[in-house]
Amino acid sequence: MISLRNILVNKISCKSIWFMRQAGRYLPEFRKIRKKNKNFIKLCLNSELSSEITLQPIKRFNLDSAIIFSDILMTPYALGQDITFKNNQGPKLSEFKMDVLIRNNKEDFSQKLSQVYKAIEITRKKLEKDKSLICFIGAPWTLLIYMLGLKKNNNSLDIDKYNKYKKQINKILKELNFYLCAHIENQINAGADVVQIFDSWAGLIPDKDIKDFCYIPNKRIVDFCKSKNIVSICFPKGLKKNYEVFNNFVKPDGINLDPDLDPLWARNKLKDVVLQGGLNPKILLKTNKDILETATKYVKAFKDIPYVFNLGHGLLPETDPVKVEMLINFYRNYNE
Ligand code: CP3
After folding, report:
1. Is 37:43 a contact under the CB 8 Å cutoff?
2. How many domains, the chain?
3. What is the CATH number of the domain that holds 240?
4. Which atom of ligand 1 is nearest to the CA of 68?
5. Which of 204, 289, 305, 316 has its CA 20 to 30 A from that of 158?
């Protein structure tokens, strides 16, 4: 088997499959652990359990890559913001304070996340050699959305708050860049071999600010990765046609597609990059026939070019693991 890292570095066309949120709430074996561990952040900082959760989907489905069980919000946590997860309401962060952010230093930050790195070390030892271990970060803008509470309940941008913080945003993004690069380097040193950069809320940035708040911050991180020989996959979700501009500007090794993109458009417009994902996770809530029809569209569109099978967003909690297995079997057995 060819590892994800190798596919990304050498732009190889071969079969490879993993899922965003493959370790999570749709798995009964995860829910069992979660029930006994009510504090999500503490669970992420329990290296033995995090490693066990990371390996659950590998044991069940023999997926080609593992993604470490953690969260993008571990970064603001380590930078001093309190985080709570209320049932099905999403995360709540304590009020952002600039003086708290700038008082941080790399050593204390890394120390606070040491159990995440330990989980990576433990997992790497247990994972087959040819399977990549993916680590991840939230892109600066997406972290800022949570840190400043810039998103309304209907998932639109809170324009008043955005304008209120506007002058501070660049400074916060730069501070975050420093700690995110440290977090990536620590995770790679612990044994991860690919990093995925989640810019889940890139689609909320007003057009005039997209270069400053999305392209440039992502490029800074990808350039850092390149300088250290670290392989990266970007996921600037919601950018629509600007995916092309993003790809040409940032030049990551891989790029994850979202469900809004037409697969053939992506194939034609996104060059010199390994494509990944795209399939709408909601499809997995439908019939087998619907699932296979849509999955076929993706496999056909990316025939003969480097493509990693994945979704256009994370697996939904209500997904039936049996459907996930069916999709994996379909992909593995597909040939044309
Ligand atoms: O992919 C994986 O299996 C690895 C683990 C992983 C989690 N979060 C675990 C998790 C990854 C890669 C993430 C990324 C993440 N976290 C993103 C980027 C991807 C995306 O979904 O857009 C974002 C925006 C977050 C922030 C976050 N964490 C939210 C909004 C929530 C609550 C709602 C939700 O989507 O689950 C979380 C909690 C979270 N992170 C859970 C898991 C398994 C659920 C925790 C629970 O059991 O309640």
Report:
1. yes
2. 1
3. 3.20.20.210
4. 4
5. 316
